[in-house]
Specification:
It comes from Actinomadura fulvescens. By secondary structure, the chain is α/β, with parallel strands linked by helices. It has twelve helices and 23 strands. The radius of gyration is 21 Å and the shape is globular. The protein binds shikimate-3-phosphate (S3P) and phosphoenolpyruvate (PEP). The site of shikimate-3-phosphate has 13 residues, from helix 3 and helix 5.
Amino acid sequence: MPAPHWSAPVAHAPVDATVTLPGSKSMTNRALILAALAGAPATVRRPLRSRDTLLMAEALRSLGVGISDDGDAWQVVPGELRGPARIDCGLAGTVMRFVPSVAALADGEVVVDGDPYARRRPMGPIITALRELGVDIDDEGRGALPFTIRGTGAVRGGTVTIDASGSSQLVSGLLLAAPRFDKGVEVRHEGPPVPSAPHLAMTVEMLRAVGATVETGENVWRVTPGPLRGGETVIEPDLSNAAQFLGAALVTGGRVTVTGWPERTTQPGDALRGLLAAMGAKVTRGPDGLTVRGTGTFGGLDADLHEVGELTPVLTALAALAATPSRLTGIAHLRGHETDRLAALVTELNALGGDVRELPDGLEINPRPLHGGVFHTYDDHRMVMAAAVLGLAVPGVEVENAATVGKTLPEFTELWGSMVTASPLGPA
Ligand SMILES: O=C(O)C1=C[C@@H](OP(=O)(O)O)[C@@H](O)[C@H](O)C1
Ligand SMILES: C=C(OP(=O)(O)O)C(=O)O
C-alpha cells in the first residue's frame, strides 16, 4: 500500500532556525570511488548516508572493496576488483555514470542496471567512450542501462571525444577512474556546452587531492596514470540541500542559518548566496555559518542556471511565490534528470493554480495565487523539497511519495518540521 501523502507544514510565522545538514552527495560518492581505487585504506568522514550513497557503497562492495561504517566515518579498504557482480544504480546519476569505469577495471562480468526510470537517463556517450577506451561492454544497442561489462582486470585508456551536453557526469565518470587506466585518459567534449561546471571542478579537485595529475583546458580534461593516496577526506555539508531551508527564510520573512558553510567550495550550492540575494534576501556569513534573512516580500529571478541545474526545482517553487515573474534558462538538460524536471514542475505547479511555462531551455514563472492539492514527485527528491517550499505559504499541499526525498536527504521531513515548528509562534 502506498504511504499516505505528507502534508507540507504551513509557516504561520517567520521561521527562525539554525540547520545542520548532512554531507554532500556529490562529494561522498566521489570520495568513495577514489578511496576504492587508492593504494591504501581511506576514511570518508561525515559522509552522507542516503539512498544514492548507500547504493554507491554497495556497488563498490560488490566489486570487492571493503566499506564499513563506524558510526562517524566510512572506512574503505581497497581490494582486488572482481566480478561477477550486479550493480543497482537506483536512480542515482553518480552511481550509473561513475561506477562503470571502476567495474571495467574488475576481472569478470558486471551487470549494471537501476530503477525503471534510470533506463531513460543519458548514458550513451559514456558507453561508447568506454568501448573506445578498450572496454568490452554489451548494451544490446540500447545506449542506456542495463548493460554488461566484461572486465579483464585492466583498461587501456587513451583519448576519447564525447558529447557531454546531456550531463557533466559523463565526463566525471571517465575521469575518476582514469588514474588506474594503463594510459590514463584524455576526454574531449564536442557539442553544446557541458552543464554543471562546479561539479567538474569538484571532480578535478578531488582527484588532485588524492595525488592524481589532472590537466584541464577548454572542453578537454587529461588524467595521467598513477597511484592514488588513501587517507582522510572530510565531506562538506550538502549545499544544494540547503536551498529549501534558506529559501524558507525568504518565503516567511524569517532567518535561517546553515552551519558549516565552507569558506571555499566547488559545490554548486554555494551559488545560492548570489541567487537568493538577487531575489531580495540578506545573506551574511559568520562563525555560525551562512545566514539568510527575508523581509517578507521578495522578487523573481532572471538567471541562467546551466552551471547549477540541481537548484532549479527549489528556485522554481520560490519563484512561484515571488512578487514578480521569473525566467530560468540554460537547463534543457534537466529533462534527463531524475524525471523530466521541466515538465514535472510545469505540471505540478500549474495543478496548484500556478502559471509556469516551459521554454526550449528552461521555465518562465508568473506568480499567481496558489491553492492546495496533491503534488506528485516522480521519484525526484527535489520535487519533495520544492513542494515543501510551496507548502510554507499554501495550505493543503499534500506531497505524494515524500519518502523519495531519501535519495539525498532521508531526514528531510523531520528537519523541515523542526524548522517550521521552531519558529517563534509555531504552527497555528
Ligand atoms: O557530478 C555530480 O555529482 C552531479 C552533477 C550534476 O549532474 P548534471 O551535469 O547531469 O546536471 C548534478 O545535477 C547532479 O545532481 C550531481
Ligand atoms: C540531478 C540530480 O541527481 P543525480 O546525481 O541522480 O544526477 C540531483 O540530485 O538533483
